[in-house]
Input
Amino acid sequence: MSARKIIIDTDPGQDDAVAILLALASPELDVLGITAVAGNVPLPLTTKNALIVCELAGREDVKVFAGCDAPLSRVLVTAEHVHGKTGLDGPQLPTPKMALQEAHAVDFIIETLRREPSGTVTLCPLGPLTNIATAFQRAPDIVERVQEIVLMGGAYFQVGNITPTAEFNIYVDPEAADIVVKSGVPIVVMPLDVTHKALTTRPRVEAFRDMGTEPGRMVAEWTDFFERFDKEKYGSEGAPLHDPCVIAYLLEPDLFQGREVNVMVETGSELTMGMTVADWWRVTDRAPNAMFMGEVDADGFFALLTDRIARL
Output
């Protein structure tokens, strides 16, 4: 079977970095390109971080594109309080030698979807959905050509992590998220409800460190850094590894369980801005538009992640 073609749209972020490493270590996936967006940190840093991660994986062949530096219609909100000033705080980071591609990320997304056979490219957004929504607005013809969107964002039972009701990726650009969930593309959502069950316990972190490789060490040190925030915030034994859930689903979908439900994004309320209103109990007559995940086999997830990172 040929490798599944994907575009990773991302705002690295330590957990984004781990997701990228997982994808680049997995021969089942053909990473056509990595598109950076402003989110966890501003765009100059998310692009730099994407290059750093590709070099860490020994994949200088992967093309990295700079995308949108601000949400569609809002002031950018960032998350240095979680990820540090660089977005990849923790270990000492090298200056990347790879160069960004000259094309804009949105143009790359459009051109790739027009070039590849229809229904063969999956979009994997790990951050705010600005690049994806912009591409859909600029080139409506590409929407029906997308095989699937598998994204990390939103919440239902876990409600919010940046406001009482909103998850960060959706909150940063709710208008973009609204465009994406209404696009008609098959969508799989990895919300906080799933990612908060994929916790980096001490034995799981030490498994990365014990690899004795540079990628293993970096993953362990990134985890050491960002888990201090979540452990204090949630009182949990470790931190959620949000974004790798997207890539893990592509590799082993049976690790996850969810429901086909209707998902809407709040764009008008000051109180609940960016909330993902998931009709989990199907109490409305709104048609399902997403597979909204609710459970993950955490042991299986970390077994997969550890196996693949060890290959780098």
In short: The first strand starts at residue 4 and ends at 10.
